[in-house]
Amino acid sequence: MITCLIIDDEPFARESLSDLLSVHQDIDVIDHCCNAIEAMQSIAKYKPELIFVDIQMPKISGLEMVAMLDPDTMPKVVFVTAYDEYAIKAFDNHAFDYLLKPIDEARLQTTIERIRKEQVQRSLAAVLPTQLEHVPCYCGNRLKVINVDDVEFAFSDLTGIHVTTSQEQVHTHLTLKVLEEKTELVRCHKQYLVAPHAISEIIVQENGAEIVTHSGKQIPVSRRFLKPLKQIFGFS
Known about the structure:
Blueprint: E1 2-7, H1 11-21, E2 27-33, H2 36-46, E3 50-54, H3 62-67, E4 76-81, H4 85-94, E5 98-100, H5 105-117, E6 134-139, E7 142-147, E8 151-157, E9 160-165, E10 169-172, H6 176-182, E11 186-189, E12 192-194, E13 199-205, E14 208-213, E15 218-221, H7 223-232
Parallel strand pairs: 1-2, 1-3, 3-4, 4-5
Antiparallel strand pairs: 6-7, 6-10, 8-9, 8-12, 9-10, 11-12, 13-14, 14-15
């Protein structure tokens, strides 16, 4: 059985695809999501083997959402689009699967058969953005999208990954690895990433250092990351 997630901001599109998939006995649709934030939460919770993602979604597109996933744990991905000339050209050039709305049943059948045969997701690097513009976050039952430029730092602890701006601290399902690779945040500690533009000063201490942000927050710097951090600002 292949567990599956449908991500689309249009209710009719979600229901239509779900109906088409219902005839495939080995495809189990375990959740529907109407935006990228809900999808990130559902992927973290259910860990589906396959996701169908609409490209044109508000705030965070399907392409940007997939770029937020950790490549090491990424499910198989099929993009769905009403029509996106750039995306379709890119997918065709690299032989990636996509479905055009309204979805053709025969095309879906071909896609499902290919998914059954492939053991792992092919690299989507050629069509995904290399840098993220947004971070999907949540705080309790409140979901929100934060611009990457507003992030001062991010850190991990036993309760998860936290994103801090000058105004608030919220949670995200993005990993520190993805944030480090696809944003301007840099490593200053095993558990911390910091935005260089947010640094007011670096206080060197006996066993490392401490960053003070422009909003007055304090962030630890381990000895391992002190030198490369100083080099960003032209210090040896």
